[in-house]
Hints:
Elements: E1 2-6, H1 11-22, E2 26-31, E3 46-49, H2 55-65, E4 69-72, H3 79-84, H4 86-107, E5 111-117, H5 140-159, E6 162-168, E7 170-172, H6 190-198, E8 205-208, E9 220-221, E10 223-225, H7 226-243, E11 247-251, E12 257-258, H8 259-270, E13 276-279, E14 288-289, H9 294-300, H10 309-327
Parallel strand pairs: 1-2, 1-4, 2-3, 4-5, 5-6, 6-11, 7-10, 8-13, 9-14
Antiparallel strand pairs: 9-12
The protein binds UDP-4-deoxy-4-formamido-beta-L-arabinopyranose (WQD).
Amino acid sequence: MKILVIGGAGYIGSHVARYFADRGHSIDVADNLSTGSEINLFPDYGFFKGDILDYPWLLEVMKQGGYDALVHLAAAKAAGESMLKPEKYSLQNLAGTINIINAAAEAGIRNIVFSSSAAIYGEPKYLPIDELHPCEPENYYGFTKLKIEEILRWFDKLKGMKFAALRYFNAAGYDPAGVVHGLEKNPANLIPVIMEVAAGMRPELGVFGTDYPTRDGSGVRDYIHVTDLAIAHLKALEYLVEKKESIAVNLGSEQGLSVLEILERARSITGKPIPAVITGRRPGDPATLIASSAKAKELLGWEARYSDIDTLLTTTWNAYQRSMEEKA
Ligand code: WQD
């Protein structure tokens, strides 16, 4: 198929684009390179540099391509930041994505794979979280993802556009083959922050609270490897084309890892001290977030295979070490 990957120079988008291309699909990437890396743009891709807020540009890209589908991975994704700068998230995640949906409708692109998030659920009312869990987002980022899912449902009803809303839990890791290795710029998530400390790019890790009702007091999350996510994106797209029905599924490993467990394992794997300081809780952080991915297994025949702690940390450390070597 011919596929437009919007945000394909970014952390998750680059893994998705490469995975699709390696399986014979024709890939074009549209990206403004604000957070993505040019080293993630491979010669076998078409590339369109521009911003999803530029509707005429976006529509022209979609019209010229004869695309069978698009994958949208160009959202802002820092939940904490969304509470400080909601305007940025309104623009990029709402206005930008509405532009994508409208342009796809005008250009006749009928299949959309959308990067949604576990953040739409808010504070867990039960665990593991399945797709029937109430959607009461506690941060503006999660709100934007939930609203886009609702708009996609309307465009399915009114325009027959089929979508797969993939609700990622905590995306982490890097390409085990090392082909995709462009580092995230200014990451806020735990594992890249730990690796920046290990690489000497950041002085220390702040551990956001160790007084949670968890096995060691630190926050527990469901980390999902980007390669597992890439596999799920292709399976989801194949589902849309074959079944012609929209879906919304969780993508998680169904395993919980705590901050302190990850920190200790990272010290062991990297051989670095990774200094850390215990701080207060980060507002809005739940103690534990773990997915049920039973629906993705049932509908897509998908389950996590690369999301164990050692693969997550080793592949990430390899990417940071390579970056350090290239800068040396
Ligand atoms: C993980 C754990 C922190 C940083 C966010 C978004 C979510 C999704 C994934 C896109 C928590 C702790 C973190 C640090 C720390 N994004 N932590 N020190 O908050 O679970 O989820 O990213 O879909 O929508 O909300 O991820 O990596 O920020 O935090 O102690 O410097 O690590 O308290 O327990 P989070 P995270």
